[in-house]
Amino acid sequence: MAKVRTQFICQNCGTVHARWAGKCDSCGEWNTIVEEDPSGGIGGGPGRQPKNKGRAVALTTLSGDIEDAPRILTGIPELDRVTGGGIVRGSALLVGGDPGIGKSTLLMQAAAALSRNGHKVIYVSGEEAVAQVRLRAQRLGAADTDVMLAAETNVEDILATLALEQRPDLVILDSVQTLWTDAAESAPGTVTQVRAASQSMIRYAKSTGAAVILVGHVTKEGQIAGPRVVEHMVDGVLYFEGEGGHHYRILRTVKNRFGPTDEIGVFEMGSGGLREVSNPSELFLGERNESAPGAAVFAGMEGTRPVLVEIQALVAPSSLGTPRRAVVGWDSARLSMIIAVLEAHCGIRLGQHDVYLNVAGGYRISEPAADIAVAAALVSSLAGLALPSDCVYFGEVSLSGAIRPVAHAAQRLKEAEKLGFKSAVMPKGSQDVPEASKQSSVEIAALPDLVARIAGGTVLTRERDEDDI
Ligand code: TYD
Ligand code: MG
């Protein structure tokens, strides 16, 4: 008799363990290992007898005719931007995000827009009943479209239903955690189930040419629970992010086999659903207090689009032995680096100060070009002097205190000009800067120059005060 084998799989990272343990060695998470039956699905492991001997496939060359990936435009430009110009037919896309962030809302709106453009869309909801989805559709003004709806979680049933219909252009599965297939024994939401169910749906997409969108919830650790293991199988991964207290949401491309991965789409959640924000800078600069010290406007780039955002710093004397460093929206290691460079090369002492850094509106910056905007905000807060309100900052700081040029200087300056900013502080030697912009902007070569421009003697005076104590 064949021995029944079971596996223990970490639900967080997908690592397979030989026996149960309280903690996963691979990702360090506790209580994530679950016993699963490896039969069915993928990853059954070696030692299983292949059912057939295999069929030879024709090998081919790299050169040859290629067709442009046929795309379906959703009619929502922000969504089309992050997918790289529309959803590719026959591809599978994963849309991840925290519960309640607005994934179902976004996809219902996309489904309605596609349907209005004459595409056939099927929306399969595994989380909500038909009545709930209808209610949302009414609220979003999508109830009068031809989007077809089903509330189902079994993959075989979904595939059988799809087989009856004329081939749809897009199938939305909300969410992947609720799907389950007869082929795997484990409970819905486990790694084996999610993998097997996704695999079936991806196979369906490839074989029929219909695009499939899988929705996945993210756990509080920031990873999609279970569906993290789906990321490598799908053609594209989009994350829908947003801060609790803010109304706007950012759709970010994490993986895209058919386009760039550095684009973002910006939306605002309102009573009538998600509204596109085509000029994010206006949103992020919305509530600016121009005379307060410690605020610098950073001219950033998100993919091909310039984004202006305010960086706020608060530097205050600390009552703690080890001063606090708190960062929201930026890399805290990068902040430590800027503080170290300010201390080492500019004579600014922050060892006795708490430093708080916040990127306005809950936006997240990943570019090193924000370095000098951060430095400017820190110095401005320490000196108690407000920065000029019509000036933007961009440039990367190296450990030696030198300021390095960054890409797309011209585009950053153009966006700043468009929004009424009159000057810019940027690295010396920036490329493609138009003559007109050059005259109104200041090019700096090293961080001490920036400090001197902002604070003059003020910071130094403060330092002397401290030394006197
Ligand atoms: P939902 O799309 O259900 O989130 P997800 O599918 O990611 O879990 O969005 C739910 C939230 O969005 C809910 O808190 C209410 C809010 N919302 C609005 O503010 N306006 C709207 O028109 C809709 C439909 C939802
Ligand atoms: Mg939902």
Description:
The protein is α/β, with parallel strands linked by helices. The protein has three domains: 1-36; 71-278, P-loop containing nucleotide triphosphate hydrolases (Rossmann fold); 288-468, Ribosomal Protein S5, domain 2, CATH 3.30.230. Helix content is 27%, strand content 24%. It has twelve helices and 23 strands. The protein has helices spanning 77-82, 103-116, 130-139, 155-164, 191-208, 280-284, 332-346, 371-383, 409-418, 435-440, 447-455, 458-468, and strands at 7-10, 16-17, 33-36, 71-72, 87-88, 92-97, 121-125, 148-151, 170-174, 211-217, 236-241, 248-256, 264-270, 273-276, 295-302, 305-317, 325-328, 353-359, 391-393, 396-397, 403-404, 423-427, 442-444. The strands form five sheets. Strands 8-7-9-10-6-11-12-13-14 form a nine-stranded mixed beta sheet. The protein has a seven-stranded mixed beta sheet with strand order 17-18-16-15-19-22-23. 43% of the residues are buried. Mean pLDDT is 86; it is low at 459-469. Residues 103-104, 127, 174 line the site of magnesium ion (MG).
